[in-house]
Amino acid sequence: MHKVSKEKSLRVAIFGAKGYPYVYGGYDTMVKELGERLVKKGVKVTVYCHRSLFKDRPKQVNGIDLVYMPAIESKSFTQLTHSFFSMIHACFSKADVIFVVNSGNGPFGLISKIFRKPTAINVDGLEWLRPKWKGIGAKYFFWASKMATKFYDQIINDSDEMQKVYEELFGASSRVIAYGSNPGLKADPTLIKKWDLVKEDYYLIVGRLVPDNNADLIIEGFIKSTSKRRLVIVGDVPYKDTFAERLKDLPDERLLFTGYVKDPYELAALYQNCYAYFHGHEYGGTNPAMLKALGYGCAILALDTPFNQEMLQRGEYGWYFGKTGEEVSEVVAKAESAPEKMKSLRENSQKGLTQKYDWDHVTDQYIEVFQELANKS
């Protein structure tokens, strides 16, 4: 393959998420934010979409070329089979570089190796430790992440702490490019009246009701506290689940489960008017929900993990609690007794969104990686 000159448009194929402009999770948002900016900077972008999720299938949206690939539809194999077919298609395409998200797609780098297509993969968090992947699922993600380090030309982590994990576990070097953040929307504060809420009279949790987000720990610790404020839990799971149902059945009138809040302005209003935001996410690197909380000016109370320490700059932009109900109760008591400190955290949190988390800066870093890979081939 030849070098890509500055005059010739760089061609990048992207897959591993649900597609474009589908925005549901972190990877989908990343594909949207990165893809649109790459196009504006003159890069030719092709995104592979899950065919079953798109009734309308235009060939191009916002300058991004779209390919709709099938998959074997099942709980365990939809994403993997979609990625397998996408990788083969991308290897036969004119793409100069293939960019893949999700470490579960690690083994497919062998295909691109055979075709000698330059590749980069964003491997995300510690998938093999997440409670939802038990037994064979956890073993697969660990193995797939290891394979990613062997088959892809460039490993990308979104935090310094995750870079250390890949170095220690797999002896693999990687490049850190953080997940980006957009400045928070300004929302009408009266929107929270929909839930009979008053400004700064509630704590907030936002995220799926799954064990690795530790909503159970936070809720049970909050119940033990003497706070007169409410605890608002935004999020759910899209299936019947005993873990989520048990939480919703806890008998405390201070708890408010809103379910999913799909209106971005309502969600922004909930963030912007809370007394403090609880962040219990445990296994990721740069977490999009934490970036939102910083962008919306929240006082943040976070589970003490290396990733959350990094994002809040070792306590400069938030407080931490350990993984026990007692420590949650203690941090609530501390927050209740320090309204001025909570106010200071709210006023300063947006300063935590340094250039590192700016989508334009993130895009420039990816272009640098893609150009290097294309010119090496």
UniProtKB/TrEMBL annotation:
Xref: InterPro entries: DUF1972, Glyco_trans_1
All copies of domain Glycosyl transferase family, residue ranges: 193-351
One Pfam family this sequence matches: DUF1972
Domain of life of the source: Bacteria
Family matches, as Gene3D superfamilies: Glycogen Phosphorylase B
Domain DUF1972 as annotated: residue spans: 12-181
Name by which UniProt lists this protein: Glycosyltransferase
Organism whose genome encodes this protein: Echinicola arenosa
